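Need the bound structure for citrulline, inputs here:
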Amino acid sequence: MSDRSYRFTHAITRRPAASITSGLRAVDTGTPDLALMQAHHAAYVAALKATGATVIELPALADFPDSVFVEDTALCLPEGAVVMRPGAPSRLGEAAEMAPTLAGLYTHVLRIAGEGSFIEGGDILVSEREILVGRSARTNAAGIAELTRAVAPWGHSVREVHTPPGVLHFKTDCSLMDGETVLSTERLAASGCFEGYKVIPVAQGEEAAANAIRFNDAVLFPAGFPRTRDRLVDAGFAVVEIGNSECAKLDGGMSCLSLRFTPS
Ligand code: CIR
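Answer from helper R.:
Posting the output first, comments after.
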């Protein structure tokens, strides 16, 4: 089995803007502290770099409060990149801001362009065998259909699944740990979408730990979820804990903060 779903030479991040205090959130649990978020973000970037990858750090975008969450702007595959069409109106322009960076790295950059097509990277989980896309409040059938057509010539198949109701993105509730293993909340795994995969369940009450990333030899994991961390360590993963308290106030986590890829 190849390991291209978790081994990458590059990542893209974007520094948090001061406007992050106006970022979208489902429930207001307090205003994020910019200085603390910047410190967490710096630790996150350092952890990516420590795996040997090149990290392209883009400047803050004051006009887009949620722009630190770069994952939602694109899908990066070995053959090319696809620029998304975020379903949150305040985030639509973020995708266009990311496109020139991708064009400088990839030969093939496609775009989700349909007026009625919406899709965000947080709803997309790429495994060795398929691309799972969760339909959600941000990702609709037209967006998934357009992505399916875009990546088919590159040999990728898309499987539509469902993001649980009330959950922002599909990957809010799951992460790929290796070619055949996912970390998942019980509520998502119960939908049956991971049949054929090995599932490590997140500990009860630690649902917010489900959004982690396997990046080369490391698993970047949100601090504060010791029972789930121990499950990953026991399964043999090299867990690096990163503070996520401020991003969590905006429903963001480890995957949202980067695009991870090996450009062609
Ligand atoms: C939003 O609601 O769009 C942001 N506050 C959080 C985005 C998190 N992104 C992700 O899970 N990929």
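Comments: Residues 183 and 200 are 5 Å apart (CA to CA). The domain at 10-261 is CATH 3.75.10.10 (L-arginine/glycine Amidinotransferase; Chain A).
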